[in-house]
Amino acid sequence: MGGGGRRLCALGVVASVTVALLVSGCSPGDGSTDPTASPSTGGSSATAPTTPASSDSSPSRSGGPSDAPTVVDAVPDLLPWKLAPGKVADTVTVGAGWTLTVAADSRSVTLDGDRTTRIPIPAASTVTDTMLSQAYAVVVAGDRRMTQPDRATVIELASGDTWYVDGRSDHGTVAGGSWALDQERLWHATYGPGRAYCLAAVDLADQSSDIAWCADGQHGFTNVEAGPGGTSLMMFDDARPSCRTLQELTDADVTPFPGVTDCRGWDGLLLAGGRVWTVPTKENRIEDAEVFASIGDAFYDLGPGRSGSLVACDGAAYFARDPASDGGAAQVLRWTDDGTLSVVYESPAGGESAIAGAPRCGEGHLTVSVLSSKGDAQVTSVTS
Question: Which architecture characterizes domain 6-48+64-377 according to CATH?
């Protein structure tokens, strides 16, 4: 599973991540764009992770009601991490036999595997999203001034065939829209009848496109994610402040995630047997969030996490967690449908600060960039 698209609006080294909530100023009916940018970081050298303190956690636990979810403590289950290939300043996504590398200036991308393909980025654009699945690589370039539609370069890995999804496609792209990739489809924002803000699905096998769903008037959406259980998104209105609702796509309509705090959800994933989502704890620091999950009618509190860092990979959900205190370790955690929460990566403890970027999935491989005063890192691991 290639997972949902991950915005790459900040590829350089970040000392601190503060994402402003811009949703309230958005007018989806007049060509609005994504109101957010997911935090991301660069990295340098890897250090062997340490094992976190053990805590009790049992699979298949009983969940609670939505207003009193069962608190789940993470157990250590560290993956075999190693240095990701390439330069530390670049952003690398490792896949099964392929690597997708975004140059530090976000102006060029290289796909390496059975062959090497270089994807040039127009001078007026920058790389905003990359996705890598078992069969396809996708690179999205966005206009720097946000006045021209996004352009996605789609590469079939087996053949090397390359084609584009842009403003001239059957269902043209928009400026700054949200993107996601699953094994069969590429999802992107488009305009429908009456300039409605809509979600299009491109069939990657035959390159045909259909509109899957359109938002109501004065509504928009972002944070589109393609998980093993289906496609989800965050819908927002034009109120001040805006009301945010996490939705799952069902046929040609959307259905709200059950149990999410009204108007507060940020990003969500659909797993084969449940849902995972984030709820910011402070509206002026959107990246600080609590992570929740549900399996059927059972609800779980997974503790602190970073909004914008949720990603599906190999059937599970992964997210980043910042240190609980100065000198602590940044972590990446995994949630599975059997009710298990695990720490799969931990940065070296000590120093003044550490922050893990959103994990990047490439068909059974996970890559993470970490900024730390103990040494930056860009590391990768198989997920099982």
Answer: 7 Propeller (2.130)
Cβ–Cβ < 8 Å for 66, 279:
no
- What are the helix (H) ranges across 138-177? none
Q: Report yes or no: 236 and 243 within 8 Å, Cβ to Cβ.
A: yes
pTM for this predicted structure:
0.86
For residues 16 and 19, what is the distance between their CA atoms, to the nearest angstrom? 10
- Pair 175, 198: CB distance under 8 Å: no
In this prediction, residue 40 carries a pLDDT of 33
At residue 197, φ and ψ (nearest 5 deg) are -85, 120
Among 330, 62, 21, 328, CA closest to 319: 330
Tens of pLDDT, residue by residue over 330-339, are 999 999 999 9
Cα distance between residue 230 and residue 124, in whole Å: 34
**pLDDT tens digit sequence for 81-133:** 999 998 888 999 999 999 999 999 888 999 999 999 999 898 899 999 999 99
Contacts (Cβ under 8 Å, ≥6 apart) of 159: none
